[in-house]
Sequence to fold (550 residues):
Amino acid sequence: MDTFNNGLHSFYFHGSGDDNALKSINSSFRQKTLRMATGTATRPQDAAKFYLDKTFESEEDSLASFNKPEIPAASKIDFEVFNVEDIPFTENKIVKFRQKVNNISVYGSYVNVEIDKDYNLISVNSSLAPLITVNTVAKISPADVLTKAKAYIENTIPISVTPLLYIYFYKGEWKLVYVLKNVFSKKKYADSESNNPLRESPEFLNYINVIVDAQTGEILKESPRATGLQANAPGDDNIEYTISVRLNDNVLELADEELNVITYDLNFDSFNMEGVLPGTIITQNGGNWLSPGVNAHHNACVVIGFLKKVLKRNGVDNNGMSLKSTVRCVEFLGINWENAAWLRNSNQMVYGQTKVNGVSKTLALSLDIVAHEIMHGVTEFTSNLDYENQTGALNESYSDIFAIIISNNGNPDPSSWNWQFGDAISGIELRDLSSPGKFGQPSHINDYVDLPNNRANDWGGVHKNSGIHNKAAFNLITSVDGSGNFVFSGDEPAILFYMGLIQLSSTSGFSDSYRCILNAAGSLFISHPEKDKKMNAIQQAFESVGINIV
Fold:
């Protein structure tokens, strides 16, 4: 059964034109704007804040359960805008608020207020802490936190890393903590702590968040960042690809200027050494291209092209950031690195290689692996899902879902899709979205494996338990109506999961994803003649694996 608890309570409201609460709130906003000076522009965040306040105050039936969280009398609660997302498929905007108590953010909290292009309220979707009584005055200084963390990770901490105060849910209670994000740990871990049931290795980079109790100075935990996977490749596919290059000072370089994808070579240097990444840009040499670079470049362009064309997203960060890929990487000099990963601190992809009959082959030759890792980058820049327990399983699942969607893109018949992830390399599949049990994953929430949150147990089983949400995605994409026709067509599933992903927050779980996708569908299909059929299919897809809105 589902034991996930992040301390947050959810609320979901998607209005329709005849909803009394929606009519009243939108009318109030119109009256307010009429009183404003002529020519005064309304910002999305101002309209959203107005709607947030009004929804808290509303006593209409559909909003009666949406109440402002309680706090002690001497405390102050407010909601800070931390992101505004454009939804090109509906022309709506989602303004994301974070709950704050005494000006300290509640980790993982959010309120999504959706408005249309005319600034009408469409939906409210939230996950908030209902009652915060924690002392918000830190007893430990940031300098002491840095000293403790430095000793803990056995490494220096970059000057750019600042301990940030949060109200954080830990072992069933809210605490005031410092979070140091994305520091590199050089701690040595016993072999027993590095076992991973699905050939994936989240410890190889050791980029972690360190959580420190702001009252006692105790290091409560380390929280891993999303990392790459491990696989053995049988060899190159010997396919000749058409790739985009650029001419620079009479030298052809492996760079796609339209998609802003550039590919580099590290020549088996260690990417852990400061200053070595991204390496040397790959150029044509004697009429030839470095073959691992061709694989990495081609597949990265496929993924970024999908983001641009289908999801209307401008690169990994949605702001046109260059996607750098580096091949022939090793973690430690002289030791082959059989892995691939999105490096959050460097905002780029790195690829290792495997020996096949003594010949080195790149892991970048698998499109689904490349897509999976790049989508970890998209997750970092949108919901920033943590990488532990059910939240980490959700993080892995979204990368799996988009890996399968992208690798099957262009095939309009999901019944003939390849649902196995990782099988392009040496025939060793890692997961199967259509049948999670094939690789030891649960496919129903009742079978959720509640593992300890440590390295030995894959941070609470993030790769194992992702099978539950993966199965829900399979159910959704392959949903059929009474006539046997697919309920969702074309790019609708990709758009739904993307609109769901961007609404989530750091500690979201499976139920949050279900609610956010249902909310996204309400907006995407608001005028669709088969809206009810699509909404029911989403409900069936998630609830058939035991994921319910709570």
